[in-house]
Amino acid sequence: MKDAFKILVATVLVAALYMLPGFESLGARTKWLSGAGIFIALCFTLKSIPLGVHLIVGWALVIETLRQVCHDVPMKEIMLGESYLIFYFHFPSAITCLAMFLMAGGISFWQLKTNDLKWDQSAAACIELAVIACSITLLTGMTWAQAAWGRPWIWSDPRLLTVAIMWFTYMAYLMFRMAIDDPVKRARFSSVLGILFAINVPLVWYAIRLFGEESHPMELTMEGTQKEIMTYTRWYGAGAFFILYMALWRLRASSMRADAKCDQLEDAFMRQKI
Amino acid sequence: MNFDILLNTLVQGSMLLAQAESQTPAQPEPDFRGHVWLAYGFVIALLALFTLFVLFKLGKTQQRIDHLTDRFEKTHPSPGSGSNPPVSEG
After folding, report:
1. pLDDT tens for residues A218-228?
2. Is pLDDT larger for residue A198 or for residue A218?
3. What is the nearest CA distance from A211 to chain B, expressed in angstroms?
4. B89: pLDDT confidence band, cut at 50, 70 and 90?
5. Nearest by CB to B36, which of A83, A135, A262?
6. A263 part of contact set with chain B, CB < 8 Å
7. At what angle do helices A87-114 and B33-75 cross, to 10 degrees?
8. A243 and chain B: CB distance < 8 Å anywhere?
9. What is the mean pLDDT of the segment spanning B36-59?
10. B28-37 LR contacts (CB < 8 Å, sep 24+)
11. Contact residues on chain A for B28, CB-CB shorter than 8 A
């Protein structure tokens, strides 16, 4: 009953936001606040949905995004031509990876506070998924850059550089985890790293404002209904990918927890034998 | 007089150049659709592979759990199971 209520509240929130007249003309602060509200509602709701259903819904939404890209959106953009189509998978991966790195930072902080190993497994699973999303962002970005700029990488672009640094730091985090055997020690060190590395996330977001102009296209140059369709598909894709990544995160975290339980049991057996 | 000849040559030259430019076939617009679909295929394949990997890992963990449960049942037989020694009455 409680879960059903959560799902209902989240659905009403999302529907209200979409139906709000003139949502596009709202101020940035209102958009951010409503976005944050929906994000929190989604996080609470998704936990109540059975994992199998969550996974199937996530995949269905991603496939639906692909269908929209093939049929609904214009095949060419004024400035970027047809290479802009990569954007519909590039943008959702970028948004998801930033959100998940931030979430991992928060979970790591909670792990340090509570000393509960289950939060360490959650943070590690979250970072694994975020690294995958970050790799997808980098690879799709490079493909797009090759098409739009004639070369896959521009070192002087602050956003590209900060994302690359973020990818390397989190790869280091994953390798560091593999190097420590003691679960308690591993959890403590990983949590500290998880919090430290999360500082890079706002840096990526504000890279352009902090370090000057960049080559990154910020807005799609289309007008009228075509632009509306593009904006809708862009955010639909972001939501779809986020829901799929959440399902994969839950799956990975449960697998890690089960593994940790098995290790504990095996240790107990070994001690009993000795 | 010489100036007229020079001017005529220039005009004729520029006209010839314009004609040549109009006859050159237009550069075909580069086709990036292949790149786009390749990127989409890569994203979907990567996520699908990760899903399968985690499901496979879960299957393996389930096997470990079954194995541990068997071992536990062998070392700690439950009171109702047949492996218990019969309890003498009286």
Report:
1. 555 666 667 77
2. A198
3. 29
4. very low
5. A83
6. no
7. 30
8. no
9. 87
10. B29/A81, B30/A81, B30/A147, B31/A82, B32/A81, B32/A82, B32/A83, B32/A147, B33/A82, B33/A85, B35/A83, B35/A86, B35/A143, B35/A146, B35/A147, B36/A82, B36/A83, B36/A85, B36/A86, B36/A143
11. none
In the prediction, which pLDDT does B90 show? 41
Q: Which residues of A touch B44 (CB under 8 A)?
A: 62, 66
| A258 lies within 8 A of chain B by CB | yes
Give me the percent of chain A exceeding a pLDDT of 70.
74
ipTM over cut 0.90? no
Q: Which helix (H) or strand (E) holds B66?
A: helix B33-75
How far is CA A153 from its chain centroid?
23
Q: Which residues of B67-85 are buried (b: 16+ CB within 10 A; e: fewer)?
A: ebeeeeeeeeeeeeeeeee
